[in-house]
């Protein structure tokens, strides 16, 4: 299906960056080179101290700069940009994207073409390749798992031989790059900032799906991702949010029977075993963040007793 030539929906590309000045050239330039005729690129400078503001203003005068006074973290930073795009500029779509990517020239046209097929398509993603191995797939969406609910990435570390060329509906997707329809924002708002980082897009998609929106995959939209270069693939920071937010996501959105099963799986596989490995290899920072993440979840649950108790009583 071709996009209606008489009206190209307005897209605003939001690139979030915190002290990521060195990464911006490739992401900005490759998005600017897209073949779609009606879009704007906006960089959200999320409280950076590395001269990002001055660099963007000097080198990319045609790019919108949105600057926060402090680091609002991942969810808060993007919410700042979503407010600009949807509330001030009245964009039809926003493309959420990381700063550590190289975009293909047909990303926007492909994502919009898929989204325009059905007004209930709220999110669209595409192929994410590893930057260092440009023919190897990192993700083409998530699959569902009977125990974990959200399984791993479809296509993870598989060479692309044309096996993911079908446009299809997904249960959920990552937000390394993710097109979002304005009506999703109107219905459920943006990211829930209690997640801050990790699981934030899953919570958003769950809430949107409850309102009838769908998640889709568009195979001709392609980016190459440097894979957690901003925070580190297995940094203590990421470990904390992995432990905390996987529990929090399921507490908020799954029923008692499921949660009781999952919490046992989680403690065994995401707390006890990793903690033992970390202590065995003297990785005390990781061990501390595992414990910290688990205690942070318990603390949140204690402060929100009414919600928490229904899963255990």
Written account of the structure:
It is a single chain. A hairpin with a 3-residue loop joins strand 8 (142-145) and strand 9. This protein has helices at residues 24-32, 52-59, 73-88, 107-115, 182-188, 200-210, 236-253, 256-280, 284-303, 305-309, and strands at residues 11-17, 39-46, 64-68, 93-97, 101-103, 121-130, 136-139, 142-145, 149-153, 158-159, 168-170, 177-181, 214-225. The strands form 2 sheets. Strands 1, 2, 3, 4, 5, 6, 7, 10, 11, 12 and 13 form an 11-stranded mixed sheet that branches. The mean pLDDT is 94. It has 2 domains: 11-225, Alpha-Beta Complex (Spore Coat Polysaccharide Biosynthesis Protein SpsA, Chain A), CATH 3.90.550; 236-309, no CATH class. It has 313 residues and is an alpha/beta fold.
Short synopsis of the structure:
It contains 10 helices and 13 strands.
Order of helices and strands: EHEHEHEEHEEEEEEEHHEHHHH
Taken as a percent bin, the fraction of beta residues is 15-25%
For the biggest sheet, the summary is: 11 strands, mixed
Overall mean pLDDT stands at 94
Distance between the termini: 51 Å
- The tally of domains stands at 2
The radius of gyration computed from the alpha-carbon positions, rounded to a whole number of angstroms, is 20 Å
Low-confidence stretches are: none
Count, helices: 10
Structural class by helix and strand composition: alpha/beta
Which architecture of the largest domain does the CATH hierarchy give at level 2? Alpha-Beta Complex
Give the CATH class of the largest domain.
Answer: Alpha Beta
Q: What general outline do the C-alpha atoms trace?
A: globular
Please tally the β strands and state the result: 13
Which percent bin holds the helix content? 40-55%
Instruction: Look up the CATH topology of the largest domain.
Output: Spore Coat Polysaccharide Biosynthesis Protein SpsA, Chain A
């Amino acid at each position: 299906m071709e996009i209606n030539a008489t009206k190209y929906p307005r897209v605003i590309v939001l690139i979030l960056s915190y002290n990521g000045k060195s990464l911006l050239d490739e992401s900005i330039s490759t998005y600017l080179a897209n073949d779609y005729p009606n879009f704007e690129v906006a960089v959200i400078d999320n409280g950076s101290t590395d001269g990002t503001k001055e660099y963007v203003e000097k080198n990319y005068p045609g790019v919108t700069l949105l600057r926060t006074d402090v680091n609002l973290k991942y969810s808060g930073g993007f919410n700042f940009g979503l407010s600009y795009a949807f509330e001030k500029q009245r964009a039809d779509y926003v493309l959420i994207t990381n700063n550590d990517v190289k975009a293909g020239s047909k990303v926007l046209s492909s994502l919009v073409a898929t989204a325009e097929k059905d007004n209930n398509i709220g999110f669209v993603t595409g192929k994410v390749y590893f930057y260092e191995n440009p023919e190897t797939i990192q993700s083409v969406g998530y699959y569902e798992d009977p125990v974990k609910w959200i399984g791993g990435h479809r296509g993870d570390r598989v060479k692309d031989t044309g096996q993911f060329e079908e446009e299809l509906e997904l249960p959920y997707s990552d937000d390394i790059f993710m097109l979002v329809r304005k009506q999703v924002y109107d219905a459920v708002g943006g990211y829930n900032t209690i997640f801050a980082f990790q699981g934030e897009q899953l919570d958003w998609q769950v809430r949107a799906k409850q309102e009838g929106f769908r998640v889709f995959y568009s195979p001709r939209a392609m980016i190459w991702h440097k894979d957690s270069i901003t925070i580190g693939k297995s940094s203590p920071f990421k470990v904390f949010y992995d432990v905390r937010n996987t529990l929090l996501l399921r507490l908020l959105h799954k029923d008692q029977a499921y949660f009781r099963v999952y919490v046992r799986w989680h403690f065994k596989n995401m707390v006890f075993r990793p903690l033992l490995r970390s202590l065995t290899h003297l990785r005390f920072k990781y061990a501390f963040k595992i414990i910290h993440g688990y205690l942070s979840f318990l603390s949140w649950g204690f402060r929100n007793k009414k919600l928490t108790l229904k899963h255990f009583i």
